[in-house]
Write a structure and sequence with these properties.
CATH architecture: 3-Layer(aba) Sandwich
Strand order of the largest sheet: 2-3-4-1-5-7-6
Shape: globular
Radius of gyration: 18 Å
CATH topology: Rossmann fold
Order of helices and strands: HEHEEEHEEHEHHH
Number of domains: 1
CATH class: Alpha Beta
CATH superfamily: Peptidyl-tRNA hydrolase
Distance between the termini: 58 Å
Helix content: 40-55%
Number of strands: 7
Length: about 210
């Protein structure tokens, strides 16, 4: 009987630990550190997480390999990360915090800019190529897979041949500045839906909006 109880309660404790891990999420916004990059198209990942911090009332603090902030929603614990490793080395920070907090890959969401989508278009995907995005390319390298959730925010492609870098590192134009608040609000709604409802429901509800 004693052995049976040890087996029963031991398995229960293991199940509870596994359940706790499933309730932890990591939201990674991609961008470059420094004031000169703050309002650039390439930093939309940072900007969306900053908006989320305002809405969920949490602060970012400087930690290892990035700025981190946490909040809870309906029994789920969310860690938000803005890597300080610069865009091209985003994978190092992401992998460190995933392993430190024991967050399963299905509860990871990476937020990045996408020149292949019109400005403000949002697209949630569970897998795919890096699409030429250096931050996603590095993440793919560290995770050793192309199957992970990524939230792509369209920044458009209004640049001439050979001017892509200048464009993504450029500031928002006046029309984009006016439209951003509404798009940021929708972006944070998508993140909340991902956490509470899962990726498939969120994709059906938000993709293309």
């Amino acid at each position: 009987m004693c052995q049976f109880l040890k087996f029963l309660f031991g398995n229960t404790r293991t199940l509870l630990k596994e359940t706790d891990h499933m309730k932890k999420f990591l939201i990674v916004g991609l961008g470059n550190i420094g004031p000169e990059y703050a309002e650039t198209r390439h930093n939309i990942g940072f900007k969306i997480l900053d908006q989320l911090a305002i809405e969920k009332k949490f602060d970012f603090e400087t930690a290892k390999l990035g700025d981190v902030g946490t909040f809870k929603i309906k029994g789920r614990s969310i860690l938000c990360l803005k890597p300080s490793t610069y865009m091209n080395r985003s994978g190092k920070a992401l992998k460190y915090w995933m392993e430190k907090e024991k967050i399963p890959i299905e509860n990871l969401l990476v937020v990045a800019d996408d020149i292949n989508l019109d400005f403000g278009t949002i697209r949630l995907k569970t897998k795919g190529s890096d699409g030429g995005h250096n931050g996603l390319k590095d993440i793919q390298l560290f995770l050793n897979t192309t199957t992970y959730n990524r939230f792509r925010f369209g920044v458009g492609s209004e640049f001439s041949k050979g001017r892509q870098v200048d464009y993504v590192l450029g500031k928002w134009n006046e029309a984009e500045k006016k439209a951003l608040p509404e798009r940021l609000e929708i972006a944070t709604q998508l993140i909340s839906s991902f956490i509470l409802s899962g990726v498939k429901i969120t994709m059906n509800q938000f993709n293309g909006t």
